[in-house]
């Protein structure tokens, strides 16, 4: 059975017919293309998932991140011109190294996050103990999910982001006893996209601004100054400015040194909060780690 990167080329070769493939049919076609035996197709992971299906899934995920394939609809895939071109340049096969060198892949997955995981998961020769390996694996998965969340948020209408950030704040415990949050974005919003109660009685409120920006479109000091002006316009003393990109050093310095309390949340932190508080994500699998109960033997 090939490792997951060994499925990269077969997936592209199957998709090279130009058709739009449903996920299940594509998995079967890739297995046929590789000539997997019945025994190989029957192999399962401890979780019960098919080993071949898992590896095809990882290959599809990597190819999608590199924009070598696209998803025209839910659970369907088709090859892109970039995918055809890479396949033509590497007729001997596409490796994980080649995939990660694709600019679109590097833009999609923050390198600084993935580089924090240097030890291969499950390698018996690694110096990390099993719990550390599990935690490293979870961190890597979360980094990829975070990148996926930001990509999807940037693809949505700005109204969607405004509602999403309010959902995150409510999940964090803001919104009072009733989880009260109101989206007020749109034309004529006065520079404020939402408002949320800070305490159970609604005696104090937090005003929110959300900016759906591309990764390379930073939020600078002028945008924060405009938000502060909007807060003064509604008599507010505190607010939260959230973006899918990053803040400049000037923006952060300004927010720290003014009397109005402004919290800045960039795309990386927003994605981390969505994962932590279960907004737009679902638990795929739960692992239980046990240790000997010393009290039982005393």
Description:
- The chain is an alpha/beta fold and 298 residues long.
- It has 2 domains: 1-108, Arc Repressor Mutant, subunit A (Orthogonal Bundle), CATH 1.10.10; 158-276, Trna Endonuclease, Chain: A, domain 1, CATH 3.40.1350.
- The protein has 13 helices and 8 strands.
- A 5-stranded mixed beta sheet has the order 4-5-6-7-8, sandwiched between helices.
- Helix 1 crosses helix 2 (23-34) and helix 11 (221-233) runs parallel beside helix 12 (249-257).
Q: Could you name the key traits of this structure?
A:
alpha/beta; Arc Repressor Mutant, subunit A; five-stranded mixed sheet; three-stranded antiparallel sheet; 13 helices; Restrct_endonuc-II-like; Type_IV_Methyl-Rstrct_Enzyme; hydrolase; nuclease
Please state how the strands of the largest beta sheet are arranged side by side.
Answer: 4-5-6-7-8
- Which bin fits the share of residues in helices? 40-55%
Number of helices: 13
Determine the structural class based on helices, strands and strand pairing: alpha/beta
Q: Spell the H/E element sequence.
A: HEHHHEEHHHHHHEEEHEHEH
DSSP strand count: 8
Our Rg estimate from Cα atoms comes to: 23 Å
Organism: Speluncibacter jeojiensis
EC number: 3.1.21.-
GO molecular function: DNA binding; restriction endodeoxyribonuclease activity
Keywords: Endonuclease, Hydrolase, Nuclease
Give a summary of the structure in a few sentences:
Its EC number is 3.1.21.-. This protein is α/β, with parallel strands linked by helices and 298 residues long.
